[in-house]
Each structure stands twice: as C-alpha cells, then as structure tokens.
Amino acid sequence: MDLELQNGAALEVAVNDRHNGFSHGEESDKRSTWRDIVLAYKTLGVVFGGLVTSPLYVYPSMNLNSPTEEDYLGIYSIIFWTLTLIGVVKYVCIALNADDQGEGGTFALYSLLCRHTNIGILPSKRANSMAGPLHPNQSMSDEKQSRLGKFLEQSITARRIVLFIAMLGMCMLIGDGILTPAISVLSAMDGLRGPFPSVHKSAVEAMSAVVLIVLFLLQRFGTSRVSFLFSPIMGAWTFTTPIIGIYSFLRYYPGIFKTLSPHYIVSFFLRKGKAGWQLLGGTVLCITGAEAMFADLGHFNKRSIQITFLFSIYPSLVLTYAGQTAYLIKHLDDHSDGFYKFVPGRVYWPMFIIATLAAIVASQSLISATFSVIKQSVVLDYFPRVKVVHTSQHKEGEVYSPETNYVLMVLCVAVILGFGDGNNIGNAFGVVVILVMLITTILLTLVMIIIWRTPLILAGLYFVPFSILEGAYVSAVFTKLVEGGWFPFAVSIILASIMFGWYYGRQRKLEYEMTNKITLECLGELLERSDIQRVPGLCFFYSNIQDGLTPILGHYMQNMRSLHKVTIFTTLRYLLVAKVPPQERIIIRRFGLDGIYGCMVQYGYADSLSPEEDDFVSQVTNSLRAHIEISSDGLSPVSIEEEISQLEEAKSVGVVHVRGKTRFYIGNETSRFDRILLGFYEFLHSNCRSALPTLAIPLQQRMEIGMLYKA
What we know:
Elements: H1 2-46, H2 49-52, H3 69-94, H4 106-116, H5 147-154, H6 156-189, H7 201-217, H8 230-252, H9 263-272, H10 274-278, H11 280-283, H12 290-295, H13 302-330, H14 348-379, E1 389-390, E2 399-400, H15 402-419, H16 422-450, H17 456-478, H18 481-515, H19 520-528, E3 533-542, H20 552-560, E4 562-574, H21 582-585, E5 586-590, E6 596-603, H22 616-630, H23 637-653, E7 655-665, H24 672-687, E8 702-710
Parallel strand pairs: 3-4, 3-7, 4-6, 7-8
Antiparallel strand pairs: 1-2, 5-6
Helix pairs in contact: 1-8, 1-13, 3-9, 3-13, 4-6, 4-16, 6-7, 6-14, 6-15, 6-16, 6-18, 7-15, 8-13, 8-14, 16-17, 16-18, 18-24, 22-23
C-alpha cells in the first residue's frame, strides 16, 4: 500500500513537473512570439520605409507612350512577380539566413567569407574565430576546402575583385541614401499640383528642397525624441493604401488578379519588344528598399522582419499596385501621376498628409542607415576617418556624422534641383536598386558554395534564375545612364574607390609593421646601448599592432637617442558594445623591462573619452599602479614602492603622446598598381581626421614622428 502511494505520488510529481515544464515552455514561446511581434511593428518605421512608399513614384517614373489595357496588365504582372521572387523567395526565404553573427547586408556577406576563407581579414572579426556555424549544413571543423574557395585564396586578383564588389554594394546603399529622400519627398509633395494645377513644378521642387534641408539640419539632435512616431506613420500608410487599392480595383477592374498568370509577361514583351524591355527601368522601382530587409537585420531579427514583410508589406504592396493599375486601365493617360489620381477625392488631403509624413520617415530611415554604414566603415578601417557622434546612449545605430550629413544634404538638393523631373530621378534610382541586389546574389552564391557547402545544382538553381532576372533589369537600367542613371553610379564608384584605396593602404601599412615589428628582445638590446638615454617623463607611444611593437619605435630611438623613463605602448581597441565595464576598459601588461609597459584601451560606442568627463592619463596611470601592486608577487615592498614612485615622478615631470605619421616611399621599382593605389591612399590620409583627437589630447602634449615605409 505504501509502495503504491509512493509510486502514485512519484507519478503525480512527474506529471506535474512535465506539465509545469510544458507551461514554462509555452510561456517562453509566448514571450518570444510577443517580442517578435513588437519588433515586427518597429520594423515598419525603420526597415520598410523605402519599400512601402514605392507606389508614389513607380508609375510616374515610366516612359509610357499611348499605353493600352494590355500594357498595364503586363506591367502589373511584372510588378507582382518581381515582389514575389525577389522580395519573398530571395530575401525572406534565403538571404536572411546568411547573416554574419546577426548582421546583414553585402558587407556582412563579405565578412562571412573572410572569416571562413583566407581572402581577407576584417579587423573586427579577428578575435571572434570561435563563432559557431551559421548554417545547419556548415561545419567549422570542415577541413576540405571547396575548389572555389581555394581559387579565391590563391588568386590575388579574384580577392581584390570580391572586395571591390562588396564595397560597391555598400556604396550603392549610400547612393540609396541620396536618392530615396529626393524621390520620396518630391513625389509626395507633387500631390499639391492635383487640387492646385496653377502650382508650377519648380515650386514643388523648391518646397521639397526646403523640407529636405530642414530634415538634414535636424539630424544633429538625433531621432530618439520623434522615432516613436515612425512606426505609427508607416503603419497608417501601410494600412490605408491597400484599402484604397481594394476599393479601386473593385470599382474599375475586378479581374485584375488574372494577371498573376506569367503569360501576361510573355505577351507584354512579345508585343512591346525593345520598348517593353526599357520599361523594366521603371518597374524595378517597385522593389526599392528590399535590400534594407537584409541590411538592417542586425537591428532586429530574422523572424520579426519575415513577419512584417509577409503579413503586412507584401500584401499591402500587391493590393496597392492592383488598385493603381485598375484605375489606370480606365484612365490610360493618368500614369504621370499614378498615385494621387487613384486616391478618392474624399480622402485626398488625409492621404496627402500621410504620404508626406511617410516620405519623410522613409528619408530619415535611409539617412540614418547611411550614417551607420559610414560609422561601421570607419570603425573597420575601410573608410577615411570622419567625425561620428552618438546621439543616443542606448542605441548603437543612432549616430550622426556632420561631414556626411552636409554632403548628403547638398547631393539630395542637387538631385531635386538638377534632375527636377521624378522620371529622371527614377532612372537614377533604378541603377542603385538593382545593382545592390545583383551584388547580393553574387556574394550569397559564394557563401552557399564555400561556406554552406550547398551542392552546385542547388546553388545553380538559385544563381541562374536570379542572375537572369536581375541581369535583365541591369541591362534595362543601364540604357538610362545618360538620362540620370550616371549620377548614383558615379557616386558609388567614387565612394568604392575611396574605400578600396584606403583599405589597401592600411593593409599594406599593417603588413609592413608586422614584418618589421620590434620584439621585446630587440627593445631590451636597444635600451642596453650606451648611446640611448632614459629621459624624465611619461610617454604614451601609440601602436596599431598588438603582437610586438611598431617599427616607428626603432626609428624614433635611433634618431632621438632616447626613451622616456616610463613608456606605455598604447593600443586603442573599439568594441561593438554600448559601454565597456570599467574593470575591462584598460588592460595593462608588464614587459619585464624597466619602466616599459603595454596598455590596451577598450571602449564602446557610448563611452566618452574626453578629458572633461574622463581623464585618460589618470585612468591609465591608476590602472597601472593597481596592476603593479597586484602582479608584483615575489618582489619586496621596497621594489614595488620604487616602481610606483617612478611612475608618479614621471607623470609629474610631464606627459607626451607620441604617434607615428607614416608615409609610403614610392620608388621606381614600385609596381604601377601600387603607385596609383598608394598615392591615392596618401592623398586620403593627409586630408582625414587624426586618430588622436578622439581622445581629446591637448595639442601641446602631442608629438608626431614621421617615417617612410618602403612600398
């Protein structure tokens, strides 16, 4: 009896535990689902601003001459299948799985390739070589390298091409930051001309330029105070436009969805021929902003982006374009104002207000994304140093770059006033949109083959259809180069050249420093020489390399014949976290030589290093004093006291910060490639910001040591 009771009690406990386990699991799943839904709502105002406002300018950007009902049916079929294949299949189902530790975008794909093959090393990724597999079929322990991976590792030309392609994709995103504000705001403001035909187009352009100038001037205050309005505004837009679309196609053309059959696309091209192919330059704009789904992956998560696109953005766009097309079928010549004409008169002004606000939010999203791209490029040492200010202590992505901001403002206003016509801006926009997508297709295919080890047949089933589809779009938009497409292409090529030249120069300098680094043994031999004096004072000697000492040290000692009694070799290390804990901010090493120490300063994006709030020298010396006291096992208290006294005395005498200002010596034996690239790098380096002002070091304490590196 007792045994039965015990067994019954045990069974009851087991059942209860199992039930509680299921309950906890269900609660955890519910919390996770709710978190994803909240994030999905937030993505409306950040990720999809450019994509969901595309109905404002798709039809007005097309060069339609005497269009017919069959033409519009074919165009809508193209739009539907473009949204489905590129938006749903490519990005939602495939590309979002190719993240690099949660980060997305073309440069994340390149970073992923760099961490798994020897085609280049990203500075921010070196320390994280223990990352787990990013795909279920991927194994970090795989020893067998793919043939394509071996080819890329062995061919320096192929590696440079892949790097340049990745940089070009990032620069195209910056070009998107120029054109999205211009075309979105101009298209929204153009709604004034419907009720007021007397308003001249130049007046709309001037008002759009004023709106953008005000928007750019407000960037320095950050977006935290108004960002809570972004998602409601985009939510109102996403909800109202498909309702109008449903009303429109039910009223004008209820059978619009028969165009989901691809044969309407075939008949469209057979009938229109070359003219139909050229119209692809306008239809491609329906997918503008799709790349943001992938690029902004690090700010949200895959599931939230998928939820928003599949259940909100995609059906909203399909219904909105269906309503626009249905209206245009009954009003064949209204395509130049294809959005506002199909809006019913009773809701015209509310929709004008929502459209204008949505265009501003879309512009803000791309401007903020551009700041983030520039900031990450500077941090990774792929772009010349520019000033980056964090306008929020809690959000890494909320940054502001004064130089970038004003360059963007000038270019945006120049686009509006220079091109004027939304048609020409659309031509320029199409180049940016489709080239970024084609670059993503190329890099994602490399990831599939090299990292995921996807069978070539399956990789081909991805690459061939999408390269054909996007290649057709590329060929069409390239015919628009003369009509405005040259502008973003030229901007992107210039930016990519700057990034490639800067990266190449920095890598060559790092290679030289690693090859000619000063070892501790060599430093000890130099200090033992009778002609080398130890002068009073405290010296911070900055170095970019952690394993060894910069060759500038040897150059300095041989020419100055001296070294300060206390010298701290300092390396600055940026971490992609908000704040580094105080106990991890400064890492001290003892080199075993009298008065010689190593120091690594780690800081995050929200840390302040200005002396008004955070005395850099005092922090380092206090950390060094604590390190001496803790790590001096076996030494007598007198020796410890003498070492601390030496440090305090050196600090009281004076502090100097020594930084190498190195240049390449380009001789006759230097290759032509190096002459061009390194000469360009020297031009950039001489015109960018210094690294030391980020620490706000007083000018009188700085010393720059010049040295020539042989190219």
